[in-house]
Amino acid sequence: xxxxxxxxxxxxxxxxxxxxxxxxxxxxxxxxxxxxxxxxxxxxxxxxxxxxxxxxxxxxxxxxxxxxxxxxxxxxxxxxxxxxxxxxxxxxxxxxxxxxxxxxxxxxxxxxxxxxxxxxxxxxxxxxxxxxxxxxxxxxxxxxxxxxxxx
Length: 151
What we know:
The chain is of the alpha+beta class.
């Protein structure tokens, strides 16, 4: 088994039906099923975003969407950050965040990045230079904070 992730980065229009299905599947598995969270995943932002997909052995294992400034926040953003259950414990979350930051910089230059983070992941995102930039708020009954990464 190859443990290396192979990265694919596409606009919404470039995604095949099968790729879109796999993206929605991993988001459903992580956010709806595992976290027992009923939330409106189809929020109209996918069409405006780029989609970063990490594959292991041909299976979508890590995913994030890169949102342009003005869609979720005034700054570029990384959202729907997910690693499949089968992909955990291999450092793919770290790889995913590093790749996501590179893609934001590729698209928008070295710029401020803002994320909406689940509170329990504050230390993880902090290791990438993100700092808390809001009070705690509840989104879908889960504690969240906004975090910002300066240039």
